[in-house]
Amino acid sequence: MLNGMAVIQFNGPARPSTGHKDMPMPRHRPAAPSEWIEMIRIRMDPSRRNGVEDQIMAHLEEIPRTPEAPRVTVRRHLSIANDLMVVLQWPAAPETAGSSLAYSLCREFEAYGLVDHTIWSTDCLSGRLET
């Protein structure tokens, strides 16, 4: 754990730092079809936390379940109990400005605390780490 955040470890073959020929190099995979994610971080007011998580989940449960809809996951910060992260994983080509769904959720979530919204591509370097 680093500063309260989970650290991801890759268990694939290590890249040799000395160029030793007996140490395997990671295999490179072609980039996956364009996917992108939006992360919405909510830092809830600790004094109003009771019931807020249920209200946030109610908003997320209203998202239609269609092939075009994002996969939705929710994460809790390991050391800050009042921090939640909502991840929207989209199967289609990225929208660099973000989705109208995420912006709508952000407006709703601002009633519960501070909100940060970021947009990420999932296909730029991931293939270099997978084996």
User: How many distinct domains?
Assistant: 1
CATH architecture: 2-Layer Sandwich
Residue windows where pLDDT falls under 50 for at least 5 positions: 1-33
Bin the helical content.
Answer: 10-25%
Q: Characterize the largest beta sheet: strand count, sense, and whether it forms a barrel.
A: 4 strands, antiparallel
How much of the polypeptide forms β-strand, as a percent range?
A: 15-25%
Total E-strand runs:
4
CATH class: Alpha Beta
- Looking at the structure, the CATH topology is Alpha-Beta Plaits
**Count of alpha and pi helical runs:** 2
Structural shape: globular
Listing every helix as H and every strand as E from the N terminus to the C terminus, the arrangement reads EHEEHE
Cα-atom radius of gyration: 18 Å
* Sheet with the most strands: spatial strand order: 2-3-1-4
| Mean pLDDT reading | 75
Distance between the termini: 24 Å
Instruction: Specify the structural class.
Output: alpha+beta
